[in-house]
Amino acid sequence: MIGRAIPGIDSIISRHQGETVLIVTHRITLKTIMGYYGKKTLHELGTLPDVQSTSLSKISIEDHVPMIEMYGDTSDYQ
Question: How many whole angstroms separate alpha carbon 74 and alpha carbon 78?
Fold first, then answer.
C-alpha cells in the first residue's frame, strides 16, 4: 500500500505546490497516508485511531515539512 499511495501523493504535491488539494480515498489508504506523514512505521499503522467514513483529515505542508492538522474529524456530522 505504501509503495503505491505515497508516490501518488508525492506526485500530486509536486504538481500542486502552494495550492489546496482535496483527495478522496478509502479508509486503509488514508491511514497509510496519515501514518506516513505522522512518521509512523508500517507496524504502527494498526495502532492509529480508526477513521470514520466521510470524516475529514488535513495535512499542511510548509517548507517541505508536513504537519497533520486534523485526523478523522467528524464534527461536521452534527
Answer: 8
pTM for the full predicted model: 0.82
Q: How far is it, in rounded angstroms, from Cα 44 to Cα 76?
A: 28
What is the per-residue pLDDT for 10? 92
Question: Residue 34: exposed, middle, or buried by beta-carbon count in 10 A (0-12, 13-18, 19+)?
Answer: buried
Residue burial 41-51, b: 16+ Cβ < 10 Å; e: rest:
eeeebeebeeb
Instruction: Please give the DSSP secondary-structure letter assigned to residue 50.
Output: P
* DSSP one-letter code for 44: G
